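quick one if you have a minute, typing this from the bus. below you get a single protein, a line of residues and a line of whole numbers that encode the local backbone shape. could you go over both lines and see whether the tokens make sense for that sequence. anything you notice is useful, everything is just below.
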Amino acid sequence: MEIVERAMPTRKKQTRKAKKSRRGGKPARQKRLTPGQWFEKLVAVQARLRAPKGCPWDREQTHQSLRTYLIEEAYEVLEALESGNDAKFAEEMGDLLLQIVFHSQIAREEGRFTVAEVIREIHDKMIRRHPHVFGKTRAKDSAEVLRNWEQIKAEERRSSGKKGGSNGGVETPRETSLLDGVSHALPATMEGLQLTRKASRIGFDWEEAGGVFEKMQEETEELKKALGEQDQPKMEEELGDLLFAAVNLSRFLKIDPEIALKKANAKFSSRFRAMERMARKNGREFKDLPREQMEALWDAAKQAQGQRRLPEMSAAPTKQ
């Protein structure tokens, strides 16, 4: 075999050869960034938007002005989760993550804390509250994990109270409760769910669902009485008691009341729109129909959609 010496190809020839190889063979593999690198890029983007000569809208935002967006993004994540569309789910979780980065950037500018501290806090908390994984504590099941979680939280609150409650060297004990940690800023159904969940963990609970149904019946009768007396403040109070009992029932049945109500809202909206379409098919506007025809269309819409089922989403025990 004759060996022929050839000069090394020029950079231009090498480039052409590489391009030709990529066309005919496997595509060149690009270096993939790690989650940490992508997160740093996102933090840098938000910092740039907030910087001088950045985005005027971003620069105007405050913690207060962003509150609505934080709640909206959380609900949009839930909607995307139920849709079964993974691309949409990932997109909406990114939008929610941006809210954390946004608030952290504002706090960093004010010299209060940084996003690194936010991550460190949750990292350390997860290690601290999972001694059965990272320590020597044992937990035989999830119920024991939740009991340990509440005990550790209570110890953390006591420790925090001692640090922040000193007065001239004299410690002022802070009154604690098993219900500490339930935010008043939560939607009412979520707050009620967490309150009853915490109470149930120490045995303050109904033995069976029948007891909750009886409580709901009792609250219904009290509401009827207040209605008969036309006592508006009492009606509000009794209706609140009835709703609280319904939330407690949902917790007992391991159903998230917020999600259950969202599904009921969606079902009503779907059926109402179906009625409007049926009316238009007959050359009428739904709002112009007499009540009897509205009821008939409701029954028809209900029957037509009776076979449809929304995605299942039950409320698993949480460590709130």
In short: DSSP finds 13 helices and two strands in the chain. The longest helix spans residues 257-281.
